[in-house]
Amino acid sequence: MKLSFRWYGLNDSIPLTYLKQIPNMYSVVTSVYDKKPGEIWDKESLLKLKAEAEKHGLAMEVIESIPVSEDIKMGSPKRDEHIAAFRKNLALCGEVGVKCVCYNFMPVFDWLRTNMHHDNPDFSNSLSYSADDFAKVDPKNLHLPGWDESYSPEELQNLLKTYQNISHEQLFDNLVYFLNSIMDICDQYDINMAIHPDDPPWDVFGLPRIICSEESIDKMLAAVPNKHNGLTLCTGSLGAGKHNDVPHMAEKYAKQNRVFFAHLRNVLYTDDKDSFVEVGHYSNAGSLDMFQIVKNLVDNGFDGYVRPDHGRNIFGENEKPGYGLYDRALGCAYINGLFEAAEKMKK
Fold it and tell me: Fewer Cβ atoms within 10 A, N terminus or C terminus of the chain?
């Protein structure tokens, strides 16, 4: 297991000196943040990030992410132009030693929550999703926590209107087209493409979701059987759907050598609908058996990249929701313990 931590580059409020102090920390997970989807990156930006990480004794082997533009997802006339830019960015990543790229193929919204600061009984706050609150949202007058500044109202409505004409099958075909267009770069540089599951794993606002279940992941892997096509096993995203047996999926896809990256976090189901709260990583804090997930990964040969995901705001911290230092550092300690126990049990 290669423990890693999301790092938002030189402007991240959490310094690399802090990350290095987390036991067993191996690699940052970062990206080039000053370019829009469809634009070509500067190699100098990647080298600067890598040099800063290595100065602090950390690798830079995971990029999360090279954004996939809406034009690629929709299959617009600009698709091939944007894929060409993605190929160049992927090659640049390979040239600087990146081994894994996490990306998603979610239309418009790559995550959705109804509350960014849900008050928990332990006096922390965290991200949450309420099915009842979501049902009150007017798609024609959208105001979603964390998204109000991502698109103008006009841009958002135009995107939603365009996607009304795109089916699940069309979106899936566009994903396959995209993957087949970049696999030669992955082969050349030995880069693993690790798709992130839909978050949450069901359709929203009529937008199709296509990586949300075991069946859909099987379909994606079968359509592009290249060894570099695989999965980011995000336990919180998959686990938000009660239809997903996450320990089983960890076992199955690790055995197939298709889990390249794991986002480990827990969620607590709060009603008999689709509502959930993001909680501490500990199994008993939520609804997922985190130890069984890790044990199934280890028992089936997983030795890829792992990072804690979406921590609570604790100890008075008020960082970007989900991305404070303290609870993710606690998550790292817990993850280290789970892997050490599972690895010793395997021996």
Answer: C
When the candidates are 3.20.20.150, 2.60.40.10, 3.20.20.140, 3.30.70.1110, the CATH number that belongs to 2-346 is 3.20.20.150
Environment class of 170 (CB within 10 Å of its CB; exposed 0-12, middle 13-18, buried 19+): middle
Identify whether the C-beta of residue 3 lies closer than 8 Å to the C-beta of residue 306.
Answer: yes
**pLDDT at residue 128 in the model:** 96
| Torsion region of 248: left, alpha or beta (phi above 0 gives left; psi -120 to 50 gives alpha) | alpha
Q: Buried b / exposed e across 280-308, counting CB within 10 Å, b at 16+? A: bbebebbbbbbbbbbbbbbbbebebbbbb
pLDDT, one tens digit per residue, over 100-155 is 999 999 998 888 999 999 999 999 999 999 999 998 888 777 777 776 566 777 87
DSSP 8-state assignment for residue 68: P
Q: Which helix (H) or strand (E) holds 163?
A: helix 153-163
pTM of the predicted structure, to 2 decimals: 0.94
Cβ distance 201 to 240 under 8 Å?
yes
Task: Compute the C-alpha angle 145/146/151, nearest 5°.
Answer: 110
| DSSP state for residue 96 in the 8-state scheme | T
Supply the DSSP symbol for 311.
B
Q: Which amino acid is at 216?
A: S
